[in-house]
Write a structure and sequence with these properties.
seven-stranded mixed sheet, 16 strands, 23% strand, globular
Length: 329
């Protein structure tokens, strides 16, 4: 059947350059200003997660310090959730990475009903009682050891290369993270989806009765003027009514486009009585070379960078207009 999707548009993912706990931190997370009605907006809030666009942060603060290398060579010591070749060595109690589609072999990705296959992480974690055999799981104890005194942040390398029926190289994404206590059965959930939408365990099952569906729309580019003014998003054919096209997301596999952070999730993971972090993740309208998603620690000490030349005009970036995306299921 076909699904009509009402979406908030994306400015992107959580913030800042971060390196593994064993390496020096290059830059701290900028102070988040996610109110779309205020000038100087540098992020958007998507339910439980604060979302920053790393290329937009570089423009906003007239710097290149928010460029984050996403190659496997740089990330092999981090915790990889998904990568084109499915390669990772996350640890004895952390699942290895899922294999994300590439070379236009699939238009969708999900780990909800699939397993990561063989691997020491998967086998060890399941033996400690997650009990489902699906999705991505990690021991909270081992995660905390890897994070040290730093916080958990997720990064996403957006590697779309072709056209699709959303327009340009845009795609849809949805994430559900869940902390589990294996003794009591308690769970605590966190969602990356449009704020105000119904929180569900799978976006496929949302009612079509006029409610907003929980897919987040990821834009591959933005329109920016010579003076740095943001003019919105390009048309489906990639042209800008005002300003010129700037590649704010689709940076290939060498650089992260977005970073995602949930203060509530990070606090609960470090201070609560939890055994497992479970993550379900879906993407749709893919047409490219394989996405990469990973976790690495970052310094929680925030700073306010000096503003650059980009004016975000009370953040029209929010783009609250409804877009309908029709896709045969």
């Amino acid at each position: 059947m076909k699904s009509s999707v009402k979406l908030l548009s994306v400015l992107a993912t959580c913030s800042a350059l971060a390196l593994p706990a064993t390496e020096a931190q290059a830059v701290a997370l900028p102070v988040a200003q996610c109110d779309p009605m205020l000038a100087g907006n540098n992020c958007l809030q998507y339910s439980d997660f604060t979302v920053f666009s790393l290329p937009i942060l570089n423009l906003l603060y007239n710097t290149n310090e928010f460029s984050v290398n996403s190659t496997y060579g740089q990330n092999q010591s981090n915790i990889i959730l998904g990568i084109n070749n499915g390669q990772s060595n996350n640890g004895s109690l952390i699942d290895p990475a899922f294999n994300t589609p590439s070379n236009n072999t699939a238009s969708t990705f999900t780990n909800i009903d699939t397993d990561v296959g063989t691997g020491s992480g998967q086998n060890q974690v399941l033996s400690f009682g997650t009990g489902d055999g699906t999705g991505w799981d990690a021991s909270v104890t081992e995660l905390k050891q890897k994070l040290g005194t730093q916080s958990l942040v997720g990064f996403f390398a957006f590697n779309e290369t072709g056209q699709n029926d959303l327009g340009g190289s845009d795609l849809l994404i949805w994430v559900h993270a869940e902390l589990r206590n294996l003794t009591t059965g308690d769970v605590l959930g966190f969602w990356l989806q449009p704020s105000g939408s119904t929180k569900v365990l799978d976006p496929e099952f949302v009612s079509q009765g006029g409610s907003q569906e929980p897919w987040t729309y990821v834009h591959g580019g933005v329109c920016v003027g010579n003076d740095g003014t943001f003019y919105g998003y390009p048309a489906p054919d990639g042209t800008c009514a005002a300003g010129s096209y700037h590649d704010q997301a689709n940076l290939g596999q060498n650089n992260a486009a977005f970073a995602v952070y949930s203060e509530a999730l990070d606090f609960a993971l470090k201070n609560g009585d939890w055994d497992i972090l479970h993550i379900d993740w879906k993407m749709d309208y893919m047409n490219g070379g394989g996405e990469t998603a990973w976790i690495m620690p970052f310094d929680t000490e925030q700073r306010v960078p000096e503003p650059g030349t980009l004016t975000l005009l009370g953040l029209a970036l929010v783009g609250l207009a409804t877009r309908k995306a029709l896709k045969a299921k």
